[in-house]
Design goal:
Length: 480
């Protein structure tokens, strides 16, 4: 055999060995559904070489073993019970099993004595947040996936600098990818100059090198603000204008943000403390030793949920499906990105089939073409089960809300899609209270009033080509 032939034979044998090793890795990797394993096996076999590259780029939910060990150690050190506050009796709560599942996510117990109000708009949420920062006495903690240098972003930056200059301890963290423009701007440097402590979640310098050790698209998607440890904000809104300049053609972005006071703010502070120590290296346990008293007249019982790929269990879809199962009369779901797991899809259909009035509200135009197509692949089954689908045309509906029977609801940063289920670090709030849940129902009713209903006949008339493309996009979900 000539030297060239030998080299070719060796290269071929090496390639086959790499294919086999990758297939075994797919079969042995934990936290993979059979559908995801099959999809990746087909990808690796059908796209020789390219499939292996794609698998190691996107196929494993891994943000780095060192980071994972650090996070688990931090979670083990931090307290889980609100000092001086007894847990609420879960068995008396509506959707008690959903509350139990949410509590298992972080070890927090549902706590009573909270007050929660909804911001009227994105502008109102920023005004309220700035006012609370201006009134802060001890600490300001902010964590946003996206923070822009627009009117809203600058207003909050200015408020944080003012607070730091008068002696308030201010800590600001953003996702390194989602807020990369801010972190490269003079405004970010000005925070440090004013005495603000800053941190980057999942920062990296060399993307091509980083992807050999961890996925670059695992991000901290949370939106959390905690003022003096007793006032907190949670919801879907980034620190940005509704006009959202990076994707202005989809504007306005329609969000929902809740301002909460009481013991559940301590739990959101604890989630911030986890992220802060993981990425900024500062231990905030001493701050969590301070008690947060129930608010007089606070009628909301709530539990915070911090979810992410560090957990082997599906916290977001589990909690959502238990909420769906608890619905007796009404179930309303608002989400911008609907690419569900089979369990979530079936749970929504099951609620409608047993007679629950189910409304699903989605944006008419999605900023992700793939997600928009994939979402519509589920419409035929949903409509056949009796789910009413509404497409909101007045901008990108970015709110994430699930509410049942006017009694319990979940809001936060998590979407009903695979990315929120398996990849992103998300923050959510599960709450029970007639007035607060009623406000969320009223907000969703307003979305529905402005939306266009999706007719079963319209979906049935879609061409075979359109349906094939939609189903193809949905089939790709397990790969990503």
């Amino acid at each position: 055999m000539s030297g060239a032939a030998f080299v070719l034979a060796a290269a071929g044998a090496g390639f086959v060995a790499a294919q086999i090793a990758t297939l075994f890795r797919i079969l042995l990797r934990e936290r993979r559904t059979p559908a995801a394993r099959l999809a990746w096996i087909i990808c690796v076999v059908a796209l020789p070489g390219v499939g292996i590259f794609l698998y190691f780029l996107f196929g494993e939910v891994d943000f780095g073993r060192r980071k994972l060990r650090q996070l688990k150690a931090i979670e083990a050190r931090l307290p889980r019970a609100v000092p001086g506050v007894a847990p609420a009796a879960r068995e008396r709560l509506p959707a008690a099993q959903a509350f139990a599942r949410a509590a298992a996510s972080n070890g927090f117990a549902p706590v009573a004595g909270n007050r929660a109000t909804l911001a009227a708009s994105s502008e109102d949420a920023i005004r309220r947040l700035v006012a609370d920062i201006d009134a802060a006495r001890d600490s300001v903690h902010l964590l946003f996936y996206i923070w822009l240098e627009d009117e809203s972003g600058r207003a909050v930056l200015d408020a944080v600098r003012r607070a730091a200059r008068r002696g308030v301890t201010c800590r600001v963290m953003v996702d390194a990818l989602g807020s990369r423009k801010l972190t490269q701007s003079p405004a970010w440097a000005a925070l440090s100059e004013a005495g603000v402590r800053t941190g980057l979640a999942f920062g990296f310098r060399f993307a091509l090198l980083h992807m050999f050790f961890a996925r670059v698209d695992i991000r901290n998607h949370r939106k959390i603000a905690v003022i003096d440890g007793r006032i907190a904000y949670v919801g879907s809104q980034n620190c940005a204008d509704a006009a959202f300049r990076p994707k202005a053609r989809y504007a306005p972005w329609v969000d929902v943000m809740a301002r909460v006071e009481g013991p559940v703010a301590w739990q959101l502070q604890c989630l911030f403390a986890e992220d802060w120590e993981l990425h900024a290296g500062e231990d905030l346990r001493d701050l969590l030793a301070a008690p947060v008293a129930p608010v007089p007249g606070g009628a909301v019982t709530a539990v915070a949920m911090g979810t992410g790929p560090d957990d082997a269990f599906a916290d977001v879809p589990d909690t959502a499906t238990l909420l769906f199962a608890a619905a007796r009369e009404r179930l309303t779901i608002t989400t911008p990105y609907y690419v569900p797991s089979e369990t979530v899809q079936q749970a929504i259909c099951a609620a409608a089939l047993r007679g629950v009035a189910v409304d699903l509200v989605l944006p008419a135009r999605n900023d992700s073409l793939v997600v928009g197509l994939a979402s519509r692949s589920y419409f035929r089954q949903l409509l056949a089960a009796g789910v009413r689908i509404h497409e909101y045309p007045g901008g990108l509906l970015h709110a994430k809300i699930v509410s049942i029977d006017g009694q319990a609801a979940m809001i936060g940063s998590a979407n009903l899609d695979r990315r929120s289920f398996e990849l992103n670090f998300e923050s959510s709030l599960l709450a029970a209270d007639g007035d607060f849940v009623g406000a969320l129902d009223a907000r969703q009713a307003d979305y529905i009033t402005r939306a266009e209903p999706v007719a079963q006949a319209e979906v049935a008339a879609w061409s075979h080509g359109r349906r094939a493309l939609q189903n193809l996009m949905a089939t790709m979900a397990p790969l990503l």
